[in-house]
């Protein structure tokens, strides 16, 4: 596959690596972006693709609770200005009520639900016509709480991040909210290390091993020393992405696992939605756009 300027630009934006390094990485991996990211990490040129999940879409996240049922959902718009308009907020309320009252399993099924005689999809189409932007129901998750369970909930003030933790056992509402706030801020990928797949561990260890061997500072070091270095780095990385291993943001003297144990509960589910995470946003070159209009 030919290495184009666009591919180099995309890799640079996702990794922060230099243009020349990005070109070399793409040439070495036949133009495969994901393999090129791994190549750069192994060479120690970049530690991680930190920008791969850049927020791109706009809109709001929502949460509705009724009885033992809670729904978390995200509705996207094209601009943040629309997200705070009365029409959009009214639509959010309709979407939340429709989801909580009907318990659909997929977005496709949700869009076919009836709202005052017309489908939710049609309601959204009407909103698009009124507001003048593309609007989509992106995702949702429904939680059915058992009698022995409790929730920790946090919605950020701008309604762009919502986190829900499900605890086995009853937790104090304030502490539950603090733990949910922690998840919102620290973005753990897993509840505990037990949830991390063997494939993920093997892949990360392989990358760290190659990176260590390619580091000039490690030339001549025996394999057993390199192995210990890799294990140490892997453990540090796992502690950063595992909720129970993280330092509690409200009290840095504690780990999250300490707080969980002290409250005699366990975390059985974790949902964190952030508006637009993982969606690529088209970049607009306004200078070029204006020039095109001038030349018409």
UniProtKB/TrEMBL annotation:
GO CC, alphabetical: cytoplasm
UniProt domain Translation elongation factor EFTs/EF1B dimerisation: residue ranges: 71-277
Record keywords, A-Z: Cytoplasm, Elongation factor, Protein biosynthesis
GO MF entries: translation elongation factor activity
Segments passing through the bilayer: none
Family matches, as Pfam families: EF_TS
InterPro entries: EF-Ts_dimer_sf, Transl_elong_EFTs/EF1B, Transl_elong_EFTs/EF1B_dimer, Transl_elong_Ts_CS, UBA-like_sf
Superkingdom of origin organism: Bacteria
Region (Involved in Mg(2+) ion dislocation from EF-Tu): 79-82
Signal sequence interval, chain numbering: none
Keyword Protein biosynthesis: yes
Keyword check for Ligase: no
Database matches in HAMAP family: EF_Ts (MF_00050)
Job of this protein: Associates with the EF-Tu.GDP complex and induces the exchange of GDP to GTP. It remains bound to the aminoacyl-tRNA.EF-Tu.GTP complex up to the GTP hydrolysis stage on the ribosome.
PANTHER family: ELONGATION FACTOR TS, ELONGATION FACTOR TS, MITOCHONDRIAL
Family under the similarity heading: Belongs to the EF-Ts family.
Protein name per Swiss-Prot or TrEMBL: Elongation factor Ts
Gene designation per UniProt: tsf
């Amino acid at each position: 596959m030919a290495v184009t300027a666009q591919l180099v630009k995309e890799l640079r934006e996702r990794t922060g690596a230099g243009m020349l390094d990005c070109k070399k990485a793409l040439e070495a991996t036949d133009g495969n972006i994901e393999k090129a990211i791994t190549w750069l990490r192994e060479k120690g040129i970049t530690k991680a693709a930190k920008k791969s999940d850049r927020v791109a879409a706009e809109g709001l996240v929502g949460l509705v609770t009724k009885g033992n049922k809670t729904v978390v959902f995200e509705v996207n718009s094209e601009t943040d200005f629309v997200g705070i308009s009365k029409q959009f907020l009214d639509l959010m309320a309709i979407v939340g009520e429709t989801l909580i009252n009907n318990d659909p399993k997929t977005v496709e099924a949700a869009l076919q639900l009836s709202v005052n005689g017309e489908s939710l999809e049609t309601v959204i189409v009407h909103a698009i016509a009124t507001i003048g932007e593309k609007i989509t129901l992106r995702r949702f998750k429904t939680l059915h709480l058992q009698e022995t369970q409790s929730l920790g909930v946090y919605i950020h003030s701008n309604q762009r991040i919502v986190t829900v933790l499900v605890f086995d056992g009853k937790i104090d509402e304030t502490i539950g909210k603090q733990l949910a706030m922690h998840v919102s801020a620290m973005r753990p990928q897993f509840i505990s290390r037990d949830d991390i797949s063997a494939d993920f561990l093997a892949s990360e260890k392989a990358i760290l091993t190659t990176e260590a061997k390619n580091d000039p500072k490690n030339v001549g070091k025996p394999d057993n020393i390199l192995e210990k270095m890799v294990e140490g780095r892997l453990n540090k990385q796992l502690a950063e992405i595992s909720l129970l291993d993280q330092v509690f943001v409200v009290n840095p003297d504690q780990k999250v696992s300490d707080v969980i144990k002290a409250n005699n509960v366990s975390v059985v589910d974790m949902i964190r939605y952030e508006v637009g995470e993982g969606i690529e946003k088209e970049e607009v070159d306004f200078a070029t756009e204006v020039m095109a209009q001038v030349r018409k």
